[in-house]
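Students often ask why we bother encoding 3D structure as a string. The short answer is that it lets us treat folding as translation between two languages. Here is a chain of 126 residues written in the first language.
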Amino acid sequence: QLQLVESGGGLVQPGGSLRLSCKASGYALDYYGVAWFRQAPGKEREGISCISSDSGTTKYEDSVKGRFTISRDNAKNAAYLQLNSLKPDDTGVYYCAARHYLGSWSVCNYNDMESWGQGTLVTVSS
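And here it is in the second language, the structure alphabet:
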């Protein structure tokens, strides 16, 4: 089974940046679309960005569009989320998740994810 481990979270001031990493093991990440989710304190987990297995499709929710950038390096079996211009509202636990989209290399969404990481905490505060 594909296993995912996130890293890169921490405490950052408003306007700062972080780069989150999602390292996969057990299977080649090449075959999976990857999504990042965020769970803010007291709120439900929500999908914020995803990338297809061929990197041809990326999606961003309005709350992060223009500030966050998703990427992947299949050779390193990893995916990333660059967080820029961070706001206090970006505080939360960030999870990466993956799903194999049978027969399609260019699909990504936030549905029916098959593997999840344990999450990494991002705190944006002055």
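Translate back mentally: The longest strand covers residues 92-100. Keep this in mind for the problem set.
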